[in-house]
Amino acid sequence: MAIQTVNEIHDGRDYDSDTSPNTRLTRQWRIIAESGDDPVDVINDASLPAQKGDAHPSEPRALVQRIELRQEDPDDFDWVWLYRAEYSTAIAGPPGGEEENENPLVDQIAIEWSYEARYAPLNVALDPTDRTTRIPVANSAGQEFDPSVNTLRMVRTLTIQKNLNSFDQNYFDYGFVERVNSATFYGYQPGEVLLEGVAASLQYRGLTPYWRATFRFLISPTNEGWVVSLQDTGVYQYIDDELERITDKKGNDVVLPVPLDGNGRALHEVLGRKPTREEIVYLDFWPYYEANFSTLGLGG
Questions:
Q1: What is the C-alpha to C-alpha distance for residues 94 and 100, in angstroms, rounded to an integer?
Q2: 11, 87, 153, 170: which could join 25 in a potential S-S bond, CB 3.0 to 4.6 Å?
Q3: How far is CA 105 from the centre of its chain?
């Protein structure tokens, strides 16, 4: 596998200095290689007419910033390639005049804050009078609504983009995704930030491959973190370390769950009366493992 001939295509030359002090030039060659050559074999051939960083013969300040290789007619002539080199007197950058780092791994991370509307089951509400006491979401007879009530919640989102030299989805899937922060992260306390997912796309800067990764975080709507609070209810209770069916005042087994006291006892039996809404006990559950997000190198 080798390059046989290289001929510069003069109508492929280009010069541009109209829009900025920077001068941009382009050269193009037609390359005859061996049939069946892979583009990686061609691009790595030492006899290529220009390499990244080489100076233009007529403008030594202009260096090769980007190169492109494509087959001219792969259907009939898969050994004929067009090789294009773009020269510039400054490092080519994105629109707006900002210079782009030759090494994509030293780019600054991109941070975006936003909000997203989500519907979620309403397991616990606040007393409409004091608006601080948690009360069960139930009807006036104390029974939960069926189907359950969903409510709109505004969830703050944090999206961070960073360039990576490689991307191992298993590393993120099993170590960070669907986990909450174990330490303070962007001003939020442990347990308040959930990594929803990580997306990545393979990109190139010149010949340098890299992964543009997007990390999407959700911030808990409350300062309690991503805890799930459920009313402590059941049809059984613990009596002398034995599980017994709860009975009503007539001695009949209850059919529907009744409030418990947080220690496995029927709350109405402990109190000797029907509990008030303020006396209802809630149990907190943590559905997510923790992870140290500082190891991702995302700031914060």
A1: 7
A2: 87
A3: 18
